[in-house]
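Input record (one chain):
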Amino acid sequence: MGYHTRIIDAYLQEWSHQTYHKPILLRGARQVGKSSAVRNLGKSFKNFVEINFEKNPEYKEVFVQNLDVGRIVSQLSLLSNQNIKDQDTLLFFDEIQECKEAIMSLRFFKEERPGLHVIAAGSLLEFALEELPTFGVGRIHSMFMYPMTFDEYLMANGENQLIEIRNQSTNKNPLPDILHKKLVNYFRNYIIIGGMPEVVDRWVKTHDYLSCQEIQDDILLGYEDDFSKYRKKVDPTLLRNTFRSAANQLTEKFTYSSVVGNYKSYEVKKALSLLIRAGLLVPVVRTYANGLPLGAETDESYKKILVLDSGLTLRLLQFTTGDITHLISDILNLPPGELVNKGSLTEMIAGLEILRYSNPNLRHEIFYWIRQEKNATAEVDYVISTQGKILPIEIKSGVQGGMKSMWIFMDTKDVNLGVRSSLENFGLLVSPNKDTDKRVLICPLYGLSQLARLLTEINEEG
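The corresponding structure, as predicted from the sequence alone:
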């Protein structure tokens, strides 16, 4: 499989050039490209040494004796028959969850071999870390990795120039219609292909949907095979049913009773928590949004769930409903406005994109807002904090209607700027209330990577 540029590459390169650097723990679900990104970084080092504890369990013995870093490095160098030298070498521990002693050793590399660059990654790593709550606070740096964003998908398809032109667009200078339509069509395909690197690579090489679906099915089966490793006391069938139910309940309040199997709510809740920890599901929790931080005032009983990837979501829906031909047809053929209004997939992708363009050095959260009053329910799809302010984001289709909840939120929370993300071109809406200066920025779904830039520009305009 060829390597396609990832956003995290620049962050990893920056880390590699720092004089003072901590070992990195690269975290994320299986198959999102963690190992490939590290190997790509390894090309910029004189020596790259990869230790895979799953393929080569004999390396575990090196760490069992004690956590003396000097001894460990010497023995690893001997066993791998490669020089492991400060500054020159990138040492990569893959599938490190298989060796808890190796996880524990990471904290000592910072103190005893600060000149050596060390990265660790692994699948189901979060469960191993949970059992080692003090594994290296302050001595290890975490980075978070996800499936490919829409921008990464465009780059894989060789559309760097299209990205460049889009990145110059503003609400005052939107894209020419021909380029806008080209990006909309790319976005339609991105919904189906998703961002799993192996799937994107297959699409770039073959443009064969069925071939891509085979890989997606293999990835999902691999995830479900992993369920038996999550916890001995959690039924893998419950995990599978919860995972598939999340695809069916996309962008709605998740209800435990909808999970097939007549499980008790607390059982489903535990399964959901494990799937979130594994990175397969992403929670969007209700916030009252009365101030920052948004997470200080939430209602955990109101939770929407996003699946990590749209392409995988479609395959999950195929597993549960048996036929999604009409859905695929809608994605490829519906007018842009109808596509956004009709499908929860576009709302889900927007939430995932917002998270994935955030700094990978931090774990980010995303929220939504709902007000329930008799005959007057209002809901804003996403609420985030950015540039020190609360930002409401609605996923809508057209100019007419559909913005009532947004204006209610902005009025009640005294927020002056919101965002509508859609398959429209870049633009700006002004509040229908002439007595306020409230505005809503229109940011296309294909341009969510530009949200921070657009917000800065509009704030500077005043």
